[in-house]
Recover the amino acids of this structure.
């Protein structure tokens, strides 16, 4: 499932080597044919959703039309319930585009701008783009650090957006996902200028070297308030990218990182990976656990739906109906179905009656 999702991801990324839209569509249709024969379609869905999220957030999709084409094909096979979250992810991106345009108009009025063609950069000093995502529709995890100090130049834009959003949607609360955010910075301390896109944590660390040629891990931790595990991961990524110099073999609080004034790159505009490659295996494991949990909730919902309609059912008949209704998504084992039945009995949705029957409790 992972490899099929990864293949689709490679087709739908901007880096896709396919020569035309028709070639991409043809290869996606071939993927759909394989998908039809998968028993565990929900595993594919979980992997696919995570990869789609990264494409959308990092603006790496080859086109929204191609993305929606794929989701439409998945919906035709598995139904809306299977693709509902994917559809809401597209909707969030479209709504966010409108919000950013409204925010620009808000800034013009709040900052008393009399020039109609003012840009975001001229108003607040930088180009600023926000994605507002529905938490229950996106497979994203909360930041591992809650004490992170945002670089000063970003504080004003965030406060202004919070004020704008609060007026538009009173009662809603924004939770900033700095771990998913990125920024493009211009590096001017070298022989030539570079425009580099990197994660917010990486940017916050590099900005500390505007005033220092070298810093200890402890000093960077104090300035950014990143927890030590996250900080070490980000510092290592910057040393691996050769922006900083230091020994990554045994980082400690007194380890020193220094700016690399001899940095060179053939390209003047590029991206630094947001996540180290070694996290891919952990990502796969967490996806598997999430799917297993989702299956339990899904099966409980199916059982309740069946029993609400039928009122009473024999054990074997209930098992058969659950398998029939679930097989388009995955093929559940009898063991897990029995476990879900027991959970629903404990929750008093069902009760056992005589003659090996279950009865629905209204």
């Amino acid at each position: 499932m992972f490899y099929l999702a990864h293949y689709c991801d490679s087709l739908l990324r901007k880096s896709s080597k396919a020569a035309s839209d028709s070639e991409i569509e043809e290869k996606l249709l071939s993927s759909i044919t394989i998908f039809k024969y998968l028993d565990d379609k929900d595993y594919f869905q979980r992997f696919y959703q995570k990869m789609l999220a990264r494409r959308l957030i990092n603006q790496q999709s080859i086109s929204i039309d191609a993305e929606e084409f794929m989701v439409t094909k998945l919906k035709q096979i598995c139904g809306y319930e299977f693709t509902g979250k994917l559809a809401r992810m597209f909707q969030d991106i479209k709504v966010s585009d409108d919000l950013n345009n409204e925010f620009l108009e808000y800034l013009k009025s709040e900052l008393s701008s009399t020039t109609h063609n003012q840009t975001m950069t001229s108003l607040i000093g930088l180009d600023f783009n926000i994605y507002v995502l529905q938490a229950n529709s996106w497979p994203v995890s909360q930041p591992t650090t809650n004490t992170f100090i945002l670089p000063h130049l970003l504080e004003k834009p965030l406060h202004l957006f919070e004020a704008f959003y609060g007026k538009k949607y009173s009662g809603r609360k924004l939770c900033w996902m700095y771990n998913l955010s990125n920024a493009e910075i211009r590096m001017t301390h070298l022989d030539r200028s570079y425009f580099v896109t990197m994660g917010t944590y990486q940017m916050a660390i590099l900005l500390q070297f505007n005033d220092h040629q070298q810093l200890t891990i402890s000093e960077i931790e104090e300035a950014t308030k990143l927890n030590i595990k996250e900080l070490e991961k980000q510092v290592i990524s910057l040393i691996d990218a050769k922006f900083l110099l230091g020994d990554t073999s045994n980082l400690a609080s007194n380890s020193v990182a220094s700016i690399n004034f001899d940095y060179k790159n053939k390209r003047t505009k590029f991206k630094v990976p947001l996540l180290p490659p070694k996290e891919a295996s952990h990502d796969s494991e967490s996806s598997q656990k999430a799917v297993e949990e989702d299956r339990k909730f899904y099966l409980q919902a199916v059982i309740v739906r069946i029993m609400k309609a039928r009122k009473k059912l024999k054990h074997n008949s209930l098992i058969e109906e659950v398998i029939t209704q679930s097989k388009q998504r995955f093929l559940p084992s009898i063991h897990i179905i029995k476990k879900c039945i027991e959970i629903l009995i404990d929750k008093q949705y069902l009760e056992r009656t005589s003659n090996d029957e279950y009865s629905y409790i209204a």
Summary: The domain at 181-276 is CATH 3.30.230.130 (Ribosomal Protein S5; domain 2).
